[in-house]
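In the design runs reported in the main text, the only information available to the sequence generator was the tokenized backbone. The following block is the verbatim input for one such run; it is reproduced so that readers can re-run the procedure and compare outputs position by position.
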């Protein structure tokens, strides 16, 4: 008759297989699957407890639910909030723009600098916001260099993943492995414990992305190519403020260097108006420039100096600061036939007072008007580019005088919070890297500081928290604990050792890395990391080897989700914009997995003196 311990172990394996199938097929929402796993484990070990020497159930509900209080989970959540703060404030935008500008004239140099920057930044912050920020930058680089976005977006995702291998906070996967080691009674990782081998693997991967991947990447048509591009020209006005970089600027061939992506229609100075070609016209403080520009150009200008884009009616503007605080959104609003705005100016209608939103641009099909926005009489069919708080934009729904085009809503970074956001981020990194405080304390404190300083509103911080991630981590940690306590981890370690026979430690480490790397492309990186950490410890102890290189192997191998779009979120982020198929990741990612396996197999035994 089968022993109770064997039944427990087989039940855990069955739960692992079942949960992985549900995760991969998405038959149920991820949260439901994760919660179901937790419930099944609690029920299983309530009926069939794993008793310790003291007779206490080692897998009771307290132990199985402890993942929700795991320091690594709070570190991950804190870093998500901090990353969201950096993204919302545009703190990385200027650096990214500098990278884009520095490589002009050389396609190879531009791409190299961009990927290197992504790799370096990803070492210090969550990969997802980095990729989100760089997707439009890489698309712009592709357009400027005459390449397809599919040539650059997959390397972007891969570079972020490679950078995440180099420090403890580079990826949430790294933190989970470190936390799992603590649960197993082993020493956790320090901030830079695997940085040197991580840099070696990242450098090898970067060379692959620069010289080999371009030959394998598909010639996919841009998903937006062939569709009507949004080249609509909005009429807008820019007021030259005393601190503006445009003060004293002169026109060259009818253009301003600071407004190269806008067409200047008129410059109004008091009662006098200048029109093209603007010979010998230098801009003064309080000049009003009437421009024609695309929505993208206007949004970029608003990121730099939002106050300059707000039309001034008089000195009694109602709460002008309401359009300068964070959480600003721009959206398109269509003026329908029969609107009360028709035939009236924005001032006469009182748009900003009625809706607490400000109009920053007006688009009229086939016509460019040399007038201030506040002087233009609205016509049916006009499109207004409006800015306001999200709640005020949403209140435009169902308005009979203005039809909100909800798909057009876009958040504007609050650049005035970029400096405190950057300081908070660097304080978190410095305190964690120097060992001043644990990473969980630093990340959680940094997240609170983001809210306390006004960088993020509480609702924004809460939206940054990923409930799927919380449930996945908690269930994976519970499964890992169950594997360890029921002997499942030792059984898998013994099985693997039986396959490799009496091979050297270096060979066992190499085989183990390859196994985890391949499975990370089928499972999620986090689940793979948590489930294989106890196996890594078991294998190391079984052959009398140090635990650290095997734990590091889990970190690197679990981050090798290059051959599948489902293994890591950044692959899914670039899949749509570049039009990738599943097979594209296999063609480009699988050789990269093989390369990193070879490099690790050669470097790790020497580095760890195995």
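Verbatim output:
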């Amino acid at each position: 008759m089968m022993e109770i311990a064997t039944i427990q172990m087989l039940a855990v394996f069955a739960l692992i297989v079942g949960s992985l199938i549900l995760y991969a097929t998405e038959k149920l929402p991820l949260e439901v699957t994760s919660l179901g796993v937790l419930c099944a484990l609690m029920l299983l070990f309530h009926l069939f407890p794993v008793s310790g020497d003291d007779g206490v159930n080692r897998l009771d509900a307290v132990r199985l639910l402890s993942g929700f209080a795991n320091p690594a989970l709070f570190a991950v959540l804190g870093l998500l909030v901090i990353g969201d703060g950096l993204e919302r404030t545009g703190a990385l935008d200027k650096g990214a723009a500098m990278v884009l500008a520095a490589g002009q004239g050389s396609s190879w140099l531009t791409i190299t600098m961009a990927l290197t920057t992504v790799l370096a930044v990803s070492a210090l912050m969550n990969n997802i916001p980095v990729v989100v920020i760089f997707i439009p930058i890489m698309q712009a680089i592709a357009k400027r260099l005459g390449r397809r976005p599919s040539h650059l977006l997959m390397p972007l995702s891969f570079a972020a993943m490679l950078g995440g291998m180099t420090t403890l906070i580079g990826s949430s996967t790294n933190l989970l492995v470190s936390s799992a080691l603590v649960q197993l009674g082993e020493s956790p990782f320090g901030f830079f414990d695997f940085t040197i081998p991580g840099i070696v693997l990242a450098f090898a991967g970067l060379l692959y992305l620069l010289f080999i991947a371009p030959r394998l990447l598909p010639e996919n048509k841009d998903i937006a190519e062939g569709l009507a591009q949004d080249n609509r020209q909005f009429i807008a006005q820019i007021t030259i403020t005393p601190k503006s970089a445009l003060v004293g600027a002169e026109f060259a061939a009818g253009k301003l260097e600071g407004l190269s992506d806008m067409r200047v229609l008129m410059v109004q100075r008091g009662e006098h108006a200048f029109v093209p070609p603007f010979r010998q016209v230098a801009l003064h403080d309080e000049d009003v420039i009437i421009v024609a520009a695309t929505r993208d150009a206007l949004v970029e200008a608003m990121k730099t100096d939002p106050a300059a884009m707000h039309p001034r009616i008089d000195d009694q503007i109602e709460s002008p600061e309401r359009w300068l605080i964070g959480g600003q959104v721009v959206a398109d609003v269509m003026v329908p036939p029969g609107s009360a705005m028709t035939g009236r100016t924005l001032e006469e209608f009182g748009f900003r007072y009625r809706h607490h939103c400000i109009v920053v641009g007006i688009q009229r099909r086939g016509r460019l008007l040399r007038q201030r926005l506040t002087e233009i009489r609205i016509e049916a069919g006009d499109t207004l580019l409006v800015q306001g708080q999200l709640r005020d934009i949403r209140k435009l729904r169902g308005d009979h005088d203005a039809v909100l085009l909800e798909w057009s809503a876009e958040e504007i970074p609050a650049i005035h919070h970029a400096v405190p956001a950057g300081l908070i981020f660097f304080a978190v990194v410095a305190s964690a890297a120097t060992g001043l405080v644990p990473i969980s304390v630093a990340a959680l404190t940094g997240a609170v500081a983001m809210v306390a300083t006004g960088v993020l509103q509480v609702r924004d911080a809460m939206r940054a928290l990923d409930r799927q991630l919380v449930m996945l981590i908690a269930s994976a940690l519970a499964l890992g604990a169950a594997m360890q306590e029921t002997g499942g981890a030792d059984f898998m370690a013994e099985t693997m050792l039986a396959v490799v026979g009496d091979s050297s430690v270096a060979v066992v480490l190499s085989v183990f890395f390859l196994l985890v790397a391949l499975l990370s492309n089928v499972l999620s990186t986090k689940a793979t990391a948590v489930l294989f950490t106890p196996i890594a410890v078991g294998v190391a102890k079984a052959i009398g080897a140090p635990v650290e290189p095997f734990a590091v192997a889990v970190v690197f191998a679990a981050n090798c989700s290059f051959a599948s779009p489902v293994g890591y979120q950044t692959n899914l982020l670039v899949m749509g914009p570049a039009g990738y198929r599943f097979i594209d990741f296999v063609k480009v990612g699988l050789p990269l997995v093989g390369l990193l396996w070879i490099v690790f197999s050669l470097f790790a035994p020497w580095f760890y003196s195995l």
